[in-house]
Amino acid sequence: MKKISKIVAKSLLWILGILLALVLSLFVLIRIPAVQQYLLKQVTAYLEKKIETPFHIGRIGLELPKMLVLEDIYVEDRNRDTLLAGEKLRVDIHMLKLFRNVVEIKRIDLIGVTVQVNRRLPEAAFNFEYILNAFSGAETAPNAETDPNAVKKPVSAPVDSTAPLVIDIDRINLERIHLRYHDEVIGLSTQLQLGQLHTRIKTFDLSGSMHFAAQKIDIDGLQGYLHQWTSEIPPDTTATEPLPEIELGEISLTNIDFAYLNKDMALDTRFAVDELLVSLEKLDLNAPQIQISQLRISGGDIRYRDGSQPRLTKGFDTGNIGISGLNGQLSDLHYSADSIGGELKELTARDRSGFAIRQLSSKFSYT
Questions:
Q1: Are 155 and 90 within 8 A, CB to CB?
Q2: For strand 245-262 and strand 211-228, is the pairing parallel, antiparallel, or unpaired?
Q3: Which of 240, 274, 319, 320 is the most buried if burial means most Cβ atoms within 10 Å?
Q4: Do 343 and 330 contact (CB within 8 A), yes or no?
């Protein structure tokens, strides 16, 4: 029995040694410039042929134990505009689980990334849809080259391709992110510049109505705007699908500067804040219902202008508000469709008209 145990133990050690040697060999080989260039050439050639637009990766590598690193990434859409450009992408992913339709990502780092997404009329299609079609097995009908109205038909999928894809993400780190989104179908355009975002995902469920949960989110240096207008296409009011279930814990925002513009309503609003801390207990988008245990703001600056209202030369102008030095703390704040209430611990602010709040505290309820 002892002899068999020794043989089994030695066999296991040999197997582990071989696996470790293979991993180390792969790690060493992929760091050799000649091997990197070969891999880059093969990957780039395959993807460019697949999506039929320029695709570039400057460097591919591995960081122990299993971190895949891509640097100098560039993808172009079919209008020859930048779709994605990235300085560095690092992903810690469980490769073997991909064969079981499971995407298990321990960590994602995106550094120096620019993304431009748009949907313009009359096509009403996103500028990245051609990539999804390329990898979803869609092929063009035989007469597509001569008939511009030809419908793309999907290729027969493998038997097991209907199995649901399970995605598990743990840690997300973003640095120096630039996002541009322009959608003429719904009448919305936004541009965001993000300094840093760090979070750990508790739940990432894309099945059913979807469920997302994160215990803590830290955001620093968020700047941008959101612009809305009335689209040429009337909104679809028949949709009855429930909104995703979202669970958030503590949200920390620092150095925020954001603007909202609505051309049709002649609204121009800007919100800037040094620090905003929110501790959420409940967030139900379908009810809707919100419960916040604590909200703290410091160094707030709010600008609100309603172009449809005349300017007032005296007194507090509700159509032209300019608040500075906004500092305050709320607790036990709850909001629902028929009521709002909570406890205002402190509030100080000053308006452009000269109106000032030196100190305000209150328990309040509105039903």
A1: no
A2: parallel
A3: 320
A4: yes
